[in-house]
Amino acid sequence: MTGFEIQRVPFDKTAVRSWTKSDPRHRSWPVVYLIDAEAPKKPSSGFKDVYVGETLNAGARVLQHLDSPGKQHLTQVRVVLDDTFNKSVCLDLESHLIRLLAGDGTYRVLNRNEGITDSAYYDREVYRESFREVFDTLRDEGVFTRSVPEIENSDLFKLSPYKALTQDQAIAVEDIVEGLFDDLAKGVGELLVVQGEPGTGKTVVAVYLMKLLADIAASKPDDEPDADSIFADFFTDDHRRALQDFRVGLVVPQQSLRESIRRVFKRTPGLHPSQVMTAFQAGESEQPWDLLIVDEAHRLNQRANQSSGGQNKKFKDITTTLFGADDITKTQLDWIRARSRHQILMVDPEQSVRPADLAPEMLRELVSAAKDDLRHYPLVSQMRVRAGEDYIGWIRSILRPGPPDVDAPPPAPRTFQDYDMQFFDDIGEMHDAIRARDAEHGLARLVAGYAWPWVSKGSADVHDIELDGRLLRWNSTDTDWIASPGSLEEVGSIHTVQGYDLNYAGVVIGRDLEWDPKADRLLVNRRNYFDKKGKENNPTLGRKYSDEELLRYICNVYAVLLTRGIRGTYVYVCDEGLRERLTGLLPGSSAQVRDGN
């Protein structure tokens, strides 16, 4: 780019026609434009509206928008002009601004999400650098309220439906939507399974699907779908009619993640926070759902002691209402299937962390049946951890429960290029390093297995964890802990971080997990595991969980914690035997950190 300018035009026909005639580039040159309102349509909503587009004929395209009933409240146009722009640059800048606007949260983005791109083109990195200048200018004008790193670290950005999908995500979305419309035409209902390891974007697919279906339902016969999108063919009259009065909901078992997604839906046209619910809310719904998407479906519950007497009663009441009797074999998944005609499950069986979660054999059967029915969609591209796609498998190999597997090679020491993975033998040094990384990149937090009781709950005067002379407290909130004040000085549990990204995770492996060098295997120390629901037997189903079963859940917990960090993972191990074992497998040491290497 040799230099850009942003021209401003009132959003009315007289002004736009005059502007169009004033420069040939206004009629025949690739540009990016924003149409926004100086004040919210409803002041009580707290949001302004904005539409972002790219075109080769700015004047004609803006005049078309002036005829759109949904944009009559908008008041001004900003056109980004540059003599070096081409179509590819404009598509990229358009997508870039849409993603950042959605993540900033000041505006409601009126765009559909099927046209977001992330394609390579000549001199892309040069243009990408210059996009920062466009952003800074727009921020100076009040269009943005936060910096790019602040936006990219926010849940609004990470959970936004305005994503450029990876190839396997796009294939899954295309096949799912195509299959859904086929099922609707045939009048049949089906269950689909989307399976992926941590960081493959299961939640991204779930939120993207919600927005795409909402956009198809809200489209108009004279709309122009994005010709470059693989989803353009879904915007037809038949599909639009098929989705009229079509009720779609998103079930999210984890409280914190659920609330974060609700905040995203509040700012997304076509979506509503009430569409995001617990499994209890889905089971209690008076009206059936046409489609329920379940994120983290492995965290749905079977019949087990719930967190309160009220929820235990609800479990019985919902089951009785739906099936005519209190059948203790029914699970929350059975509720969802009973209350919806179509279901899409986002699943990773290796992220089940409590005995109350759906039983492992049930999850295996679900996945196997979906594969047999050609209703199984794998996600394999690693979007989170910069260590590469084999990092997840390596972490799971070093946390493999049970005796040595003669059919699997033992885990070997690894280093991961461009990934900051370090082993610490002093918790204070690791905490100091996490603070430093947070100052540099944001979103660096300490997390730990549930190897200490939560004695500080409701009291700010006590601490839960004491290691190497340092006193630490568990997370002071269950909801949106990562972004909460003071979280940098606290320790997050599995229930606050599962489903979220961090830039750096400082993982404390407590004495609930031990290494037996004689048996060459991991062991569970039940006495040092303090998640009551994580080790509770199930008398209703006649289940007593053995140490081997508990070990599997605890290993899953640590595998989840060790796969949160995008840029790096720091590790501190309490058990001496396990510390010695992992020191030989994990790269880095506290000595290296002290030396600045």
From TrEMBL:
AAA+ ATPase domain span: 188-350
InterPro entries named in the record: AAA+_ATPase, P-loop_NTPase, SLFN_3-like_DNA/RNA_helicase
Pfam families: SLFN-g3_helicase (PF09848)
Superkingdom of the organism of origin: Bacteria
Protein name: DUF2075 domain-containing protein
Taxonomic source organism: Microcella daejeonensis
